[in-house]
Design brief:
3 helices; mainly alpha
Length: about 110
């Protein structure tokens, strides 16, 4: 009798973990889409004229800081959602890194 309850408990935990991973991945995709839409709507600074390269190089640190900040905010939100849904350790890290990669890709795609 104990084997049945143990196997049922293990399958219930696996189903809960699968649901939590699905929620975390959907959160990451939703945040990346939000970043993509915001970057597609907002204008990015573009240089023009003889000194356009110098102007872009002056803006580059600000753009990189915006990229880093957006990635960290989205990564933190996804990690919090994953942790609240019961994921631990490497699963939270994996979902968070997936979110970071999606956010960075969305930010660069929205810039063009």
């Amino acid at each position: 009798m104990e084997n049945r309850s143990t196997s049922a408990s293990v399958s219930t935990r696996a189903a809960h973990r699968s649901r939590a991973m699905r929620i975390s991945y959907l959160t990451a995709i939703g945040l990346a889409l939000l970043v993509l839409i915001v970057n597609a709507v907002l204008p990015w600074p573009t240089g023009g004229g003889a000194y356009s390269g110098m102007g872009m190089m002056m803006m580059m640190p600000l753009l990189l800081m915006a990229l880093f900040t957006a990635g960290m905010i989205c990564m933190t939100i996804v990690a919090m959602v994953a942790h609240l849904n019961g994921l631990r350790g490497l699963q939270v890290l994996g979902v968070s890194l997936f979110s970071l990669a999606l956010t960075l890709a969305a930010m660069l795609l929205g810039a063009n």
